[in-house]
Amino acid sequence: MLEASATIARQYIDAVSTFEALEEAQEEAAHVRGGMYWHAGPASSPDAKYLVRTTPAGAETSLGPRTPENEAIYERFILRKRESAERVSGLKAALEQHQRLNRALRVGRVDPLVVALLGRLASTQLSPHFRVVGTHALYAYEATAGVRLDSDTLATRDMDLLWDTRKRILFSTQLAKVDSSMLGVLKKVDSSFRIRKSQKYTAVNKDGFEVDIIRRERAGDDPHPIKLSDEDEDFWVAQARRANVLLDSPAFSAVIVATNGTMARMNTVHPATFVAFKRWMANQPDREALKRRRDVLQADAVQTLLDTYLPQV
């Protein structure tokens, strides 16, 4: 592995600072979604006004007649909404500049498709229901450590998403708000994604890049099998051995950068959990020899990151 140059490290730090400021601004903006307006009173009282709050979906709630208190509520809301919009707009412009610098300085290492998929999960508010596990998690660890792992360690053409079955009702509710299926969410990024007929927990695109969605082994009141939506073509989530260990791991999150400069947040498992899990996999007698060797390689690499660059995590 190699340490990132001072120029790349500085650009990454500055870009992440702007990215995180935009995350906060967008979270604040969510509190002033929708609008407010003064609704005219009935024909019997044409001069009366009533304050109405609207939601993005079009629902309306009356907050009562026009009073000094409601006028103050209206003015605060309009001011806050305008300031929020200006802040989000400014930070988006600043982030675009950082993404151009990321590309020019070759800060990023991640496949742009991976960053786009993670960005889509974030924008649809589906991110809290998934953790990236497997090889792609290494990008979060190396970004935080400020190093570049060997290409052999990172080689992969699939991304594993661990779905939290404990939140399945909340997930279904949110998915219904943004799309008809989980496959539909992916297809907004790349329309060529299709579910593999021989492996229903995998979607593959025209370039052979795969997204696998896995879950813990059945426990408690988990239904089984589970399909992520009622659409004809969608993921049937696969049970993965000891995935509960990954699900219960302390969370680890980092902003990753694609080769084209774009950025996204990756939510994954703690590096120590990754190391322990990879060593367990490497000792499974039914695992292919080539995969066992890569498991050991990845475990050793992340252990080095923990010992040398990430003692604080």
Plain-language structure description:
The chain is an alpha+beta fold and about 325 residues long. Helix content is about 45%, strand content about 20%. Strands 5, 7, 8, 9, 10 and 11 form a 6-stranded mixed sheet that branches. Strands 2-3-4 form a 3-stranded antiparallel sheet, covered by helices on one side. It is globular.
Instruction: Report how far apart the termini are.
Output: 19 Å
Question: What is the H/E string?
Answer: EHEEEHHEHEHEHHEEEEHEEHH
Compute the number of helices: 10
Major sheet: 6 strands, mixed
- Strand-pairing-aware structural class: alpha+beta
Give the structure's gist in a few sentences:
The protein is α+β, with helices and mostly antiparallel strands and 313 residues long.
Topology summary:
Layout: E1 2-3, H1 6-30, E2 35-40, E3 49-54, E4 60-65, H2 68-105, H3 112-123, E5 130-133, H4 137-145, E6 147-148, H5 151-154, E7 158-163, H6 168-178, H7 182-187, E8 194-196, E9 199-204, E10 210-215, E11 238-239, H8 243-247, E12 251-257, E13 263-269, H9 271-282, H10 289-308
Parallel strand pairs: 7-10, 10-11
Antiparallel strand pairs: 1-6, 2-3, 3-4, 5-7, 8-9, 9-10, 12-13
Helix pairs in contact: 1-2, 9-10
Q: Key terms for this structure?
A:
313 residues; alpha+beta; six-stranded mixed sheet; three-stranded antiparallel sheet; 10 helices; 13 strands; 20% strand; globular
